[in-house]
Design a protein that fits this description.
Vanillyl-alcohol Oxidase, Chain A, domain 3; 2 domains; Uridine Diphospho-n-acetylenolpyruvylglucosamine Reductase, domain 3; 8-stranded antiparallel beta sheet; 15 helices; about 525 residues; about 25% strand; globular; alpha+beta; 22 strands; 6-stranded mixed beta sheet; about 30% helix
């Protein structure tokens, strides 16, 4: 069998701008891979996959030799500079090989369903993963609000969704193939959850490492531990979600649900025991204190072969869309000067975008493509559940005294805590308070005031790695994650091949917040 052709090309570029146009990063150029379709047999697929590993190692070797920084990226979804480099970027979108493991490569100690394991190369976007899993009668266990990001992108930044009984996206990952230097690449699993036999790592040419701490460090590491080439995920059987969005009074029953996840004070269309997804969105331009919230409830039920996807306008964001997509609809209709007279226009758009609905769908049909590509603003902080209303009240009070009109939505989502050392959904459970709007200096000023007031109030919080998070400093990251910071740094030093390789994967973002050594 002939060797696969070299696939990577280098294109000089002076700068890079992310999808949401919230930053412009000066760079030297972009490595990208051409699409390759090897024969659909295990030997040819493995050979093509391993050839890509060697090419990635070659790019790292070149960066080491020339003392350049390097970062892999997929869909460039992040709004922060977490996933960019000052010199070279590597687009991995064309790397899309997948494996279903034979029984001979699965550990005899693996206690979960072996038929639901899938190994996916780094270029797979969530939408494509949804498609291939659907063909096998399977589903992801959790999703963000849309499906355009690549799998390493969502897990590396802690994309969370609102599956409060399961967790964020990184929590369905059980194996990580990590390229950590010109001569080193590793396959990571938790020692407490072995998945494969040593033969699998050997087939990849990788060193097998089973270590809970190293795995939990690498899981949310935003490209700082090398290049994630492949991920082993645990899927689940297809299931349906009955989704209900409605306006609800901001009454004691809703407040109780927000602070305790006890839904006994709410009238629900389905049993609370079946609740999978819960979020509440508040429009601060409507009323402060909040009088109502747009509440989205999704209840899990078994799959049925008669399922038909919901009839939803293809030009609109999906039923599970976040505040970012809703605000994106305002980009072309708002005047440049936002005075009090613009409030009715904002409120009318929000009412239209958050209209009540009842639909039933699979994850792939509810959490789907975000259409917004302009300058939108999105931020997220994780707080303990007991502080959810305190944080909401601070955000609303800050806005009431801000003195400027901002197109903005505040959303509360709820997520089971993660084991990832720097996973921002670290609280058990975590309430994520999202503030979404348009990307302006005033939006940044407002959220900085909110975050400053949280700090003054002594409320513990973390920040979404992939969203606007310029409030982060070395001291604040230490406050957020405590001893986990040192463990994460030690793990990075252990896994990356050498100090020179650590420099290659140390971008300005992690240097600024004290995570680079």
């Amino acid at each position: 069998m002939p060797n696969p052709p070299k696939r990577s090309l280098f294109t000089p570029r002076e700068s890079w701008t992310g999808r949401h146009q919230t930053y412009k990063q000066k760079i030297e150029g972009l490595h990208s891979f051409q699409v390759h379709h090897p024969p659909n047999n295990s030997a040819a697929l493995l050979k093509a996959y391993n050839a890509a590993t060697q090419e990635l190692q070659g790019l790292i070797a070149q960066a080491v030799k020339e003392k350049k920084t390097l970062r892999a990226f997929g869909s460039s979804w992040s709004l922060s500079k977490v996933a960019v480099s000052e010199h070279r970027l590597v687009s991995t979108k064309a790397l899309r090989i997948r494996f279903t493991l034979p029984a001979s490569q699965i550990s005899p100690n693996y206690a979960s369903d072996r038929t639901k394991l899938r190994f996916l190369e780094c270029g797979y976007a969530i939408a494509e993963i949804n498609r291939v899993l659907f063909q096998d009668g399977l589903s992801l266990k959790a999703s963000g609000s849309n499906n355009g990001q690549t799998l390493p992108g969502v897990i590396s930044t802690g994309t969370h969704g609102s599956a409060f009984k399961f967790g964020a996206t990184q929590d369905f990952v059980v194996g990580i193939h990590l390229v950590t230097g010109p001569k080193k690449h590793v396959y990571l699993e938790r020692a407490s959850h072995p998945v494969t036999r040593p033969s699998f790592a050997k087939a990849l040419g990788a060193e097998l490492i089973r270590d809970d701490t190293l795995f939990d460090a690498a899981l949310v590491s935003f490209g700082s531990f090398g290049i994630i080439h492949g991920l082993m995920i645990e899927a689940r059987d297809l299931f349906l979600l009955d989704a209900y969005r409605s306006d609800r009074k901001f009454n004691p029953g809703l407040r109780k649900a927000i602070t305790t996840l006890d839904f006994s004070g709410l009238t629900l269309p389905k049993p609370a025991s079946k609740l999978y997804h819960f979020q509440a969105t508040i429009n601060p331009n409507d009323a402060i204190p909040a009088k109502k919230a747009s509440v989205l409830l999704m209840f899990e039920r078994p799959w049925t072969q008669s399922y038909q996807p919901p009839d939803w306008d293809d030009g609109a964001a999906g039923p599970g869309a976040s505040g970012l997509e809703v605000m994106g609809g305002l980009l072309d209709i708002l005047p440049s000067e936002l005075g009090p007279a613009v409030k009715p226009l904002i409120n009318m758009q929000v009412e239209d975008q958050l209209a009540p609905y009842e639909v039933t769908g699979a994850i792939r049909d509810l959490f789907r493509g975000e259409k917004t590509t302009g300058k939108v603003f999105a931020s997220g902080v994780g707080v303990p559940l007991s502080n959810a209303l305190d944080v909401l009240n601070i955000a609303l009070e800050t806005y009431a005294n801000f003195g400027r009109i901002l197109p903005m939505l505040i959303t509360l989502r709820f997520v089971k805590g993660t084991k990832a050392l720097l996973g921002f959904t670290k609280y058990e459970p975590t309430c994520v308070l999202e503030i979404d709007g348009l990307f302006t200096p005033q939006s940044q000023k407002y959220v900085n005031e909110v975050w400053g007031r949280l700090e003054q109030a002594g409320i513990p919080f973390t920040m979404h790695w992939g969203k606007i998070n310029s409030f982060m400093t070395k001291a604040r990251v230490r406050t957020m994650y405590g001893a986990n910071v040192d463990t994460w740094i030690d793990s990075r030093e252990t896994l990356l091949e050498s100090p020179a390789v650590r420099n290659v994967f140390a971008n300005g973002f992690i240097k600024r917040i004290g995570l680079a050594t």
